[in-house]
Design goal:
The complex is a heterodimer of chains A (116) and B (267).
Chain A: E1 2-3, E2 26-30, E3 36-40, E4 45-49, H1 59-63, E5 68-70, E6 76-78, H2 86-94, E7 101-105, E8 111-113
Antiparallel strand pairs in A: 1-3, 2-3, 4-7, 5-6, 7-8
Chain B: E1 10-12, E2 29-31, E3 35-46, E4 51-60, E5 71-75, E6 82-86, E7 96-102, H1 108-115, E8 121-128, E9 141-147, H2 151-164, E10 170-177, H3 186-195, E11 199-205, E12 215-216, H4 219-226, E13 233-238, H5 241-253, E14 261-264
Parallel strand pairs in B: 9-10, 9-13, 10-11, 11-12, 13-14
Antiparallel strand pairs in B: 1-2, 3-4, 3-8, 4-7, 5-6, 5-8
């Protein structure tokens, strides 16, 4: 969530103004005091690499290169939680030959992968 | 049917135009993300109790260009579990791919594939992997070292280098197996060595009977006898971790530069 600086004396949206198209995933809300809150919906899945289980096969980095990369020890590390979408992050985890990637749904707190 | 021109799964990153005082530096190829494809089991060859080759036909899309040495990730369970397998077929056939599987571990992947019915759709991701012959390097000779089903990407590489790339550099394969009875593809490799004078093949049997006259013991034993170590030879290793560890240690002892050593973690 990111607050946008606004002119306190001006309403956020002028009466009769045409709605401004938003980038995908971005929503804009007007607060009761006339401010504008712009938020971006990122994925709900959080990924984590169990370092001791990683063998550096790099399938995660091949499938979701904006989320995973190999470090100097050829072990996968998470470089971003929102570089690729949830489906891609889950596929990357499911492709790990040693199940070294844990996927958690941040909205429910449930572990999505590996399944029990 | 997709009739688009086949392109490999890499993008050559364009180098900036050099100024007169700047040397031209080759840019590394940037792999494209794998694509989701649906495949169907078209055929399988049961070589022995341990090794089976599964041939898959692309269903949607109809083509999957790949580089020799790359692998695919196959969904092997309803819950989404996947396993990765190196492709053993030639990239010249991009409407299909074959994988070689050691079914002896009887894990989720081998059980799934053993019981897979012909014609059933299988969710696959591919191609992936950078275990490919370095195209822009100064490697003067290529040595492939495999154990067990680690031979899978090697076959794809051999077929590609000899038949498609017309590579005339010396190409040598060392393939370690426990027993002679486990070998397969040896006739094909023998025919290739007859047809291409630059290709030679050394099967290495660790538990050979007295009648076995070729290499025995570990692959490093055979390499130490048969391989000259030109400092610019490219070594490509695929197999179990102890073998990779042994061979890397041996080659580092021969002062082979690490840039000429390539290995795959799984196969």
């Amino acid at each position: 969530m990111q607050d946008q600086p606004t002119d306190q004396n001006q309403p956020a949206v002028q009466p009769g103004a045409q709605p401004v198209p938003q980038p995908p995933g971005v929503t804009t809300e007007t607060t009761p005091n006339g401010g504008v809150v712009q938020s971006k919906q990122i994925g709900k899945y959080k990924v984590e690499v169990i370092r001791d289980k990683c063998i550096g096969a790099a399938s995660c980095a091949a499938i979701a290169p904006e989320v995973f990369e190999l470090d100097e020890e050829n072990i996968a590390v998470v470089i971003s939680q929102d570089g690729n979408d949830d489906d891609t992050k889950l596929l990357a985890a499911q492709s790990c030959p040693t199940a070294a990637i844990i996927v958690t749904d941040t909205q429910t707190g449930q572990q999505v992968w590996p399944v029990a | 049917m997709d009739t688009s021109t086949s392109t490999p799964n890499v993008v050559s990153t364009a180098a900036p135009t050099p100024t007169p005082d700047q040397p031209i530096v080759p840019q590394p190829a940037r792999p494209l993300p794998p694509k989701r494809v649906t495949v169907k089991l078209a055929d399988k060859h049961i070589f022995n109790e341990k090794f089976i080759q599964f041939n898959f036909e692309l269903d949607e899309p109809h083509r999957m260009p790949f580089l020799a040495g790359q692998y695919v990730s196959i969904q092997v369970a309803e819950n989404g579990d996947r396993r990765s397998y190196s492709i053993c077929s030639s990239p010249s056939l991009d409407h299909r791919f074959d994988v070689l599987v050691d079914i002896s571990p009887q894990g989720a992947g081998s059980k799934f594939l053993e019981n897979l019915e012909f014609g059933k759709s299988v969710d696959t991701l591919g191609p992936m992997g950078a275990f490919t012959i370095a195209q822009a390097s100064d490697e003067t000779e290529i040595v492939l070292v495999a154990t067990g089903s680690g031979i899978s990407p090697m076959r794809s590489i051999i077929l590609d280098q000899l038949h498609e790339k017309k590579d005339t550099r010396k190409l040598t394969l060392y393939w370690g197996m426990r027993y002679v009875e486990e070998l397969f593809w040896q006739d094909e490799f023998a025919e290739l060595s007859d047809a291409f004078p630059n290709f030679s093949f050394h099967p290495v049997i660790s538990r050979a009977s007295d009648g076995w006259t070729l290499c025995r013991g570990r692959v490093t034993d055979c390499i130490s006898v048969h391989q000259d170590h030109d400092p610019k030879t490219g070594y490509y290793l695929c197999g179990n971790q102890p073998m990779i560890h042994d061979v890397l240690g041996y080659l580092e002892g021969k002062a082979i530069d690490k840039k000429y050593l390539h290995h795959e973690k799984f196969y």
